[in-house]
Amino acid sequence: MVRKPLFFAKVISLAVIFGLSTAAAFAQTSKPANELEAKIDSIFSNLQAPNSPGAAVTVIENGKVIASRNYGFASIEHQVPFTHKTVVRLPYSESREFMMIAAVLMEKDGKLRLNDKVRKYFPELPAWSDQVTVLDLMNHRSGFVDEWATVLLTQNSMANRFDRSQFLSLLYTQPKPEIEPGKGYMYSNSDMGLLKFILEIAAGEPLRDWMKKRMFRPLDMAATRMNDDVLEVVPDMARKYSFGREVKFARPEKISPGGNYFIATSADDLANWVAAHTDASSEIAWATKQLLEKVRLMPGKKNHYIFGRSVETIGGNEVVIHQGVNGFTYLIRVPRSGLALIATTNDHNGVTPELMRLVKHVLKTADAEFVKPQFLTKAVPISEEELKKFEGLYVWQDVEAWQSSRPVRRTTTIYVASGVLRLRFLGEDVPLVYVGGGKFYFTDGYGVQVEFSTTADGRDQVVLQFDDGYPAIRKIRESSKPWSPTQEQLVLFSGRYHSKHLDYYWTILRGENGTLVLKRPTVADTILEPDGENTFRFIMEDGHTPGQGFNSWVKFHLDRKGNPTHLTVGFPRLMDHRFDRVVQ
């Protein structure tokens, strides 16, 4: 069992994979020029292992480079070192900073207005979107479906072909908004895809060409470009690698309109990007100020602007972090101190933890030293009758909700089988060892203490604590006896269902042990597990890792006679997509 999807994924460090002793054997040939560079070597030691991906790290103070280090390989298979000139693709949402700055500059040039209605550019968009503006796209308040989430109803890979015409057809035929246009909030990749198309119409040329002439060439960022052609041969570009028990190429990246606005750049070019941000007279600094005023903070995510900027206070300093929603960080600035830290990498997991450690070191602050908790592990006798008192459906609390205003629902079933208390979540099933005092224990490479208690307001809860510093997970019991459908109900729910929007069919069949089986012509069969009355849960796979993706729910809607009329599918980026029951 692994923490992801049960307890989220933990990144395995290369120091563990290759062994700490091998890291020293692959140390850089150049020696650190100063104490700061030596510290950087220490922080990025995992990228000094044999056959590791690479990174380029730069520390700038008041416009002067005070530390510069390179690690690992741009090409492991060809043993090409990673340098400050190595070009990497920034991930999806990290590239929004550049595209939104382009939108502001186009408004300055008189090519468009951020308050333009989107139907001015695409009149075929549905009538309900009549008042949606370009700025609404930038603020994720348009109401358009999220391309990725919606297409996953019909396929389990985000790397599948989905072109411009298909993308626009998806929006043209959308029957109703996902949220109230201009007022609600739902993170939608479609907003960014449509924004790119509008900017190209306004510019009168491909956005990549306009950005090169208007933004990057004046800043002497020769290696930087919008890399929206996956087949383009880019000089000095490094392919990304991922890690498990062995080094592999990273998964294919999404190339459909909802994500195909990548920015490719290098550490050297990002130093010029830093200079543009720190020069108050530059257009880039001016455009960023406009975005800070016009683009909203992301709901459910602390101090993070939708255009890819987080603001934190570290050691009494305001720290500006250039990153996307998944926390991939490539640039950190401390305006008051004139400091900037750059890190480019072809490690698919990124180097955000290392970069955060570095900025804390530079600012002479640090996290409290982690002390590993000691959990009880020795089994204590307990009767099956006592174990059954802990059974129930538990709902996760304190779940980050940046995807939309819709609550993120994540549940765990705890039940007794053969005299053992077990914890089940989306196919993961873990036996718990009772250690006394309402506490249980299990291990899977890391130790987990499972403690049952009662909250101050009288609710039953369970808290999972980890011995490796991973944040605790708290769950509240929703019901002591989870809803379990009868065989008759499973037969009743079975049938064929049709999405008018997608013109696509789902077939639902009775499964085993109270489950249903979802059959789709283009996706492998999926098990639906009961999760509340007339509701089932499943993982809507995204093709990145087998068995992983978005936690989703299917709800069957019944008429007065108790017969299903339709089902809806939802999660925070899919607002109850409707499939009507097909009457045979």
Structure in words:
With 584 residues, the chain is an alpha+beta fold. The protein folds into three domains: 89-362, DD-peptidase/beta-lactamase superfamily (Beta-lactamase), CATH 3.40.710; 384-479, Lipocalin (Beta Barrel); 487-581, Lipocalin (Beta Barrel). Helix content is 22%, strand content 29%. The protein has 15 helices and 31 strands. Helix 4 (35-43) packs antiparallel against helix 13 (352-362), helix 5 (96-108) crosses helix 12 (283-294) and helix 11 (267-278) packs across helix 12 (283-294).
At CATH's second level, what is the architecture of the largest domain?
A: 3-Layer(aba) Sandwich
Biggest sheet strand line-up: 18-17-16-15-23-22-21-20-19
Radius of gyration of CA atoms, rounded to a whole number = 26 Å
Count the domains. Answer: 3
Shape: globular
Low-confidence stretches: 1-29
Q: Give the overall average pLDDT.
A: 91
> How many strand segments?
31
Secondary structure: helix percent: 10-25%
Broad structural category:
alpha+beta
* Terminus-to-terminus distance: 42 Å
Note the total helix count: 15
According to CATH, the fold-level topology of the largest domain is: Beta-lactamase
Largest sheet: 9 strands, antiparallel
**CATH superfamily descriptor of the largest domain:** DD-peptidase/beta-lactamase superfamily
Give the DSSP E fraction (strand runs of 2 or more residues): 25-35%
CATH class of the largest domain: Alpha Beta
